[in-house]
Amino acid sequence: MEDNRIESNTGEITLKEIYFTIKEWFQYLLSNYKLIVLVGIVGALLGLGYSYTKKPKYTAVLSFALEDDKPSGLGGALGLAGQFGLDVGGGGGGVFSGSNLIELFKSRSMVEKTLLTPILQNGKTISLAEMYIQNNKWRKGWAKDEKLKSIQFLPNAKRETFTRAQDSILEIIYNSLSASGLSVLQKDKKISIITVEVKSENEVFSKVFNEALADVVSDFYIDSKSEKSRLNMTILQRQLDSIRGELNGSITGVAVANDRTFNLNPALNVKRVPSARKQVDVQANTAILTELVKQTELAKVTLRKDTPLIQIIDKPIYPLKKEKFGKAKGIIMGGFLGGFFIVAFLILKRLWKMLLN
């Protein structure tokens, strides 16, 4: 371009002017190099101090696989049961599958129930919520507050009996864990393996909370999915016991009636009617009992099919993965941030003076 000019919407600026402007700014910053270096050193020292005060974090990793809801070859048997008006379950079950199960792990109800799980610490049984409070030294700040000083989170306490203050504290713990302490993810949607990670400054808490959360969600998951099958099996078992009692009574009745008509005159066949009626009851109850036994066994198979929903693959093992803020990292980041902020401050200061002039 002629005269080494660059055209812009605001006018024409030569490359020479750009060069001298950059050089001027560079000389300005160079004239304040002592201040920049000093602030950079202070930042590096602060970063080093932060690396000493920053506690390491321990990550507990647990992985599990979901059971595939595939047909088990019971279609014909389930159809037969349906003809008798019996629902033995075996359908659906995908409400908590995949991403829904991931959200279940991160739900507030599951996390809070896990926080009330008991753990043995220094010979005393406490809840995980109490352990979290002790790890973060919250009770030191509560010592002067009469309402907070007496608050306790007992193991396996009933959630519905908690006060408003207890609810608020559990919510704070839940939000803290959800923000940075709890991670649930499925690395590949084609693979039904889900990984749960719990990160905290206490190695024991990370491991125990991870395992307890898996147990709580697993129990809830199994109960929710197999509730229908378990209810049907209970009803069938109750009916089975009832019919068995009726059958035993009918058999006894036949024997009693036969005893009464022993060596009876053939001309008095009417006396044999009670025995015949009892025989009919025995045959009917036998047929009903046979069918109920089949359906009860089928319900048990269906319930077993629905029960093993979560299979643990890997559990956290000591020592856990340790993440520590290193000294070198603290010095480099502190020095860089200190230098960056002082340079930005000097630039803004000079621009402000230029605007005033």
Can you lay out the helices and strands and say which pair or pack?
Elements: E1 5-8, E2 11-14, H1 15-31, H2 33-53, E3 57-66, H3 75-83, H4 99-105, H5 108-115, E4 118-121, E5 124-127, H6 128-135, H7 138-142, H8 146-149, H9 164-181, E6 182-185, E7 193-200, H10 203-260, H11 273-306, E8 310-314, E9 321-323, H12 327-356
Antiparallel strand pairs: 1-2, 3-7, 3-8, 3-9, 4-5, 6-7
Explain this structure to me?
Keywords: Cell membrane, Membrane, Transmembrane, Transmembrane helix. The strands form three sheets. Strands 3, 6, 7, 8 and 9 form a five-stranded antiparallel sheet that branches. This protein has two domains: 15-53 and 326-356; 57-323, no CATH class. The model is unreliable at 1-11 and 70-93 (pLDDT under 50). The chain has helices at 15-31, 33-53, 75-83, 99-105, 108-115, 128-135, 138-142, 146-149, 164-181, 203-260, 273-306, 327-356; strands spanning 5-8, 11-14, 57-66, 118-121, 124-127, 182-185, 193-200, 310-314, 321-323. It is elongated and about 125 Å long. By secondary structure, the protein is an alpha+beta fold.
Tell how many strands the DSSP assignment holds.
Answer: 9
Task: Count helical runs.
Answer: 12
Main sheet attributes: strand count, strand direction, barrel closure: 5 strands, antiparallel
Structural class: alpha+beta
- The helix fraction, in percent, is 55-70%
H/E element sequence: EEHHEHHHEEHHHHEEHHEEH
Beta-strand content bin: 5-15%
* Tally of separate domains: 2
Round the mean pLDDT to the nearest integer and report it.
Answer: 78
Shape: elongated
Distance between the termini: 34 Å
Low-confidence stretches: 1-11, 70-93
Instruction: Determine Rg (CA atoms, Å).
Output: 38 Å
